[in-house]
TrEMBL record:
This is Tetratricopeptide repeat protein. It comes from Autumnicola lenta. Keywords: Repeat, Signal, TPR repeat. SUPFAM superfamilies: TPR-like (SSF48452). Pfam families: TPR_8. The keyword Ribonucleoprotein does not apply. Residues 1-19 form the signal peptide. TPR repeats lie at residues 221-254, 289-322. SMART domains: TPR.
Amino acid sequence: MKTNILTLGLSILSLTAFAQKSEIRDAGDAVEDGNYSQAQQAISQAEPMLSEANDKWTERFYLYKGQAYLGSGENVSLEDLNTAAQAFQKAADMGVEEAQDGLVAVRNSLVQGAINDQNSQEFTKAAEKLHTSYQLSGKRDTIHLYYAANNAVQAGDYDMGLEYLNILKEEGYDGSGVEYIAVNTETGEEEMMASKEQMDLMIKTGNYSDPSERQIPSKKGDIASLIARIYISEEKYDEAIAAMEDAKRENPNDIELMQAEANMYYNMGNKEKYNEIMEEVIELAPDNASLYYNLGVNSADLGNQEKAMSYYEKAIELDPDMTEAKLNMVALILSKEREIIEEMNNLGMGQDDNKRYEELQEERNDVYKEAVPYLEAIIVKDASNVEAIRTAKNIYTQLGNEEKVEEMDTLLENLSQ
């Protein structure tokens, strides 16, 4: 009786091993046919019996599992890619050379998925995929972590962004080296690839062309600047100042960094410090119209209208098409009207008062005439600028220029049709 029980047990064990091998074989056949969902189903059925398999079938199991969950590599979920990576890693640990190719394919899929997520502005997903790729590289490919941090910041997930950026900072990540570029054949736009391997793979798909390489500068300043900007957005100004000082040590004459520092002080309410730094920026980039415009805005906020007007004039001189500078100039000019109107309203009915009233009316008209050239320049460039047209109409009405009033009315009517 005991012998029969043992024989029966051995038979059941043999049947279990046979079934388990059959499921693994079916998974491999499904992978070969490109039927990945069927392969995953076979893997799920074989997994509970895996402890009964020998090393050869265990190696195949993990290889096929990785291939089943990686699939074609396109539009694969992060969860499935993690499953594939874990399976390939187990196969690789057992000495399966093909599993190494699988790990590379998983990382390529992660990076391409991150690029797709960036293009659709799903920055959190992109950050998670790039961080996973960084981890799968044994934390060697820190450039993936750098891009993960940037995507996290883009997504507004500052906790995630700071975590990644601080890792990069602590590791002394530099980021200088070679950048891999290819042209998207559909859009005609250049796109950056995370590695040469990924670029080569994308070229093989036919979806990209014109691969190229170019040198990229150190990213230490960018990292420190990003950290500072996150602290600024969270109004943690002490931390922001310390981070900005780190960034300046790396790139003391970086204009964008200096502007970020100036904006930091502006957000802190220290507009004098903002002006001081921006003046230094102008010395480094004297032909940058936007810098003069920004200084004009800040000077106006500080109540220094004369200085603001001089900055706007310089911005317009450098960029004659800068509508914002012209509109702000008009606003500053027309602000002179307030004091004139206030004095006019306080005058009495005497002869001297009437004479002063006429003088003030002339001064007011001079203010209008000073603003007109800026408005006309805007309208000539952009006949759809309703704000400029309506302001011009009001001025022409005050000046009694009916012909110009009718012209502005016609422009407004055309825009309303």
